[in-house]
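Service request form, structural biology core

Requester: graduate student, group of Dr. S.
Request type: structure prediction, single chain
Budget code: on file
Notes: please return the result as structure tokens.

Sequence provided:
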Amino acid sequence: MASAAEQMASSMNLGAFSKATELKARIWFTLGALLVYRLGTYIPVPGVDATVMGEMLNQHGGGILGMFDMFSGGALGRMTVFALNIMPYISASIVIQLMTSAIPALETLKKEGESGRKKLNQYTRYVTVVIALFQSYGIAVGLEGMRGSFGSAVIDPGLFFRISCVVTLVGGTMFLMWLGEQITSRGIGNGTSLIIFSGIVANLPHALASLLELGRTGALSPVFIVSFIVIAAAVIALVVFVERAQRRVIVQYPKRQVGQRMFGGESSHMPLKVNTAGVIPPIFASSILLIPATISGFANPTGEIGWLQYIANALAHGQPLYMATYAFMIIFFSYFYTAVVFNPEETADNLKKYGGFIPGIRPGANTAAYFDHVLTRLTTIGGVYMCVVCLMPEILISRYGVPFYFGGTSLMIIVSVTMDTVTQIQSHLLAHQYEGMIKKSRTKGRGR
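Core staff response, request fulfilled:
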């Protein structure tokens, strides 16, 4: 019976999908936009020798370059127009969020609704340009100083190369920002997340082939490869479970009389996610910890022992100091970012304004304290979960040379974006079914 019901439900979903022309148009638009993005990751920056850049990435791939190259889908390693990817926009969004909680004027804009949101988005674009300018100029100067076994990375260094490199990289980032907004409004899912997702997924086959090649050459045993695949599946299952988990706080609304009718008296729930911070804490922690190794690799290419090299060695993958610092920073950023995105006092005031209350808790300050208490416990669980998910792959990366693409951060991004996109597709299908039912009821009403 259960299998028959599942088959019937799946056939209904397939039938609804075949009739949902708007949904199909959105999906095709999203796929086309992502295809444009992938094509752009193969258009090189003028004046750069890609061979030298690839050699440098192989030498320093364990640092922050390797992680950014993973997020960019290999565009940084090939030094293409999308080398910066969408990361400046994400950094600008985080900066604006932090400033919103610290600057009263921006906090007022946030409460103004749609008009305030548009102004904040405009400010985010301006900050994106500034961050992209600094990063692209740093890349241009760094490229001029790179030299490999094939010669210099820049064919003709100078002012003209710096200007052309900055314009190209900033233009690529702004185009991706616009493309992400178009996917969000005219496609399916969050455009920014899908761009990062597609970059990671595009290189997964190559990473899997590299892993199997290590097994073929004898560097890794077949038992280890099978165990690794089982562990990866278990980590994915854990990510799915925790990302869907939520604490439902019961909210009661009192009855009120309007004329001769009674309204209200209903109870609902406010869902609080276990992992409110998402993938931001691992990304921040990884970026900060990988900076010493990257600076040391470029500033000290001979590998001589110095204070910077000593710090880089102590914070290398798999070292005890690195693991402890990584876990501490993940938990710290979990609490920090959760405090930025969720304000217990504001939530309690909104509940009090609309007459809602939590059973057994007085409205106002007591409700805010209750939210803070619940959120602290949830953030602790979420921080420990992220430490487990991110530290287990770090051990494999450091000891067995497993690629970055199988790290905890990349798996969390892949699973989270997939779940969000599938949820939006189901919402569109449900809305289409409701529209069909309403049209049928209107047709029957006219027939009578």
